[in-house]
Design brief:
about 290 residues, alpha+beta, Substrate Binding Domain Of DNAk, Chain A, domain 1, Substrate Binding Domain Of Dnak, Chain:A, Domain 2, 3 domains, 4-stranded antiparallel sheet, 7 helices, about 20% strand, elongated
């Protein structure tokens, strides 16, 4: 902010006193208010229109970058949208993010590419689907899948998914803006603003449900494999903690669900340590000490 000499407010909404106060606090200086914020928008649109029709003045080169009108991302567990390229990003642009598997031994991943600002996939626009196969069987959460989005200067979106240890990959190309009018884009944005609070609450609850499902599934798998390490009293305590999580799973209190999932985690701490000790004993059985150095 200290390197900025002046701030021009663009758009009629910037007339609001709160916006001007916030800009002043952030930049440490009041914004320039001697320009009409509506005319700034109109002049900018006129300049761009003039360039788009091919008019050009001598020694006057304008760079008018295009932007992504709506965020691009993929579907994650629970039907949530994970945004990878946010709206208003200047194109060309490339972004990547790592994801992992949800189940033990998972060897494939379905990639659902979506567009929009809402937190739930059901409220966004579906662009494409493809699958990444050949993921090595691992414990849930161990695989590393890098999903990369790249939008070129023509607005074409390329999405690739690659498993990091083996290099297996899959790719798809799609035109995000195909079939969308300006009015439809504006409606999707207005819809996201109107439902922002509800969406955030829904996301918090879904994330808590997904995490609870993961912990319960991992605990039940561990009990099937090494339940003999527990006394009847210890087993009952863990079973009761699982029952509490399951009882809150379909409620609407994400904080209570997170608390019960954390309680289940705490209840299985000693069990996890015993399983680790058993695994170490099995791994070291019959081996010489000097062979481990």
């Amino acid at each position: 902010p200290a390197d900025i000499k002046g701030v021009v407010l663009v758009g009629g909404a910037t007339r609001m006193p709160q916006i001007r106060r916030t800009v002043t606090e952030f930049f440490g200086q009041p914004p320039l208010t001697n320009l009409n914020p509506d005319e700034v928008v109109a002049l900018g649109a006129a300049v761009q229109a003039n360039k788009l029709v091919g008019n050009r003045e001598r020694d006057n080169e304008w760079l008018l970058p295009d932007v992504i009108p709506l965020s691009l991302g993929i579907e994650t567990m629970g039907g949530l949208t994970e945004k990878i390229i946010p709206r208003n990003s200047t194109i060309p642009v490339a972004r990547a993010q790592e994801f992992t598997t949800f189940k033990d031994g998972q060897t494939a991943m379905a990639i659902h590419v979506v567009q929009g600002e809402r937190e739930k996939v059901a409220d966004c626009r579906s662009l494409a689907r493809f699958e990444l196969r050949g993921i090595p069987p691992m414990a849930a959460g161990a695989a590393r899948i890098r999903v990369a989005f790249e939008v070129d200067a023509d607005g074409l979106l390329s999405v690739s998914a690659q498993e990091q240890t083996t290099g297996v990959h899959a790719t798809i190309v799609v035109k995000p803006s195909y079939g969308l009018t300006d009015d439809e884009i504006a409606h999707m944005l207005q819809d996201s603003f109107a439902h922002a609070s509800d969406d955030m609450r829904a996301r918090a609850l879904t994330e808590a449900q997904v995490e609870a499902d993961r912990i319960v599934a991992a605990t039940e798998s561990a009990l099937r494999a090494d339940g003999d390490l527990l006394s009847p009293v210890e087993r009952k305590a863990i079973d009761d903690a699982i029952a509490t999580v399951n009882a809150r799973r379909n409620g609407d209190d994400h904080q209570a669900l997170r608390a019960s999932a954390e309680a289940l985690n705490n209840a299985t701490t000693e069990f996890a340590a015993r399983r680790m000790d058993r695994s170490m004993r099995v791994a070291l059985a019959g081996k010489r000490v000097d062979a481990l150095t």
